[in-house]
Amino acid sequence: MTGLGLTLYILIHIIALTGLLNGEKAFNEEMALFKSPFFLFGEWLLGALVMFHSLNGLRIVLVDLGNGARYHKQILAFVYVLGVIMVTGMAYLIFHG
């Protein structure tokens, strides 16, 4: 699911960058739109997707190497706890920073 969300973001990002073709003023107006609460929430969601996607990738590497499979449940719990802490901190930075 995180991979699909990141793919969707790439498409939106490419479309947003086409605003550069319309000149600096149009691009700045578009960037002002991205500071709205709706887009700030989207930015937070994107960060959450990236964090969980990367942490899960590290988890898979640890499970595949050596005795990682023996500690699969502990690693998964650690990934979830660390992910929630990171996403909460990111929410503070985005919405109160």
- The gyration radius over C-alpha positions equals 18 Å
Distance between the termini: 28 Å
Q: Please tell me the total number of domains.
A: 1
Order of helices and strands: HHHH
- Described by the principal axes of the CA atoms, the overall outline is elongated
Structural class: mainly alpha
Query: Portion of residues in helices?
Result: over 70%
Q: Any low-confidence stretches, pLDDT <50, length ≥5?
A: none
Provide the β-strand percentage band.
under 5%
Please work out how many helical segments DSSP would assign. Answer: 4
How many beta-strand elements?
Answer: 0
Mean pLDDT: 87
> Biggest sheet, in brief?
none
Q: From the structure provided, what is the oligomeric state, counting identical versus distinct chains?
A: single chain
Structure, briefly:
This protein has 97 residues and is mostly helical. The chain has four helices and no strands. The protein has one domain.
Keywords:
single chain, 97 residues, mainly alpha
Question: Could you please describe the fold and organization of this structure?
Answer:
This protein has helices spanning 2-17, 24-33, 37-64, 72-96. With 97 residues, it is an all-alpha fold. The chain has one domain (2-96).
SSE map:
Elements: H1 2-17, H2 24-33, H3 37-64, H4 72-96
Helix pairs in contact: 1-3, 3-4
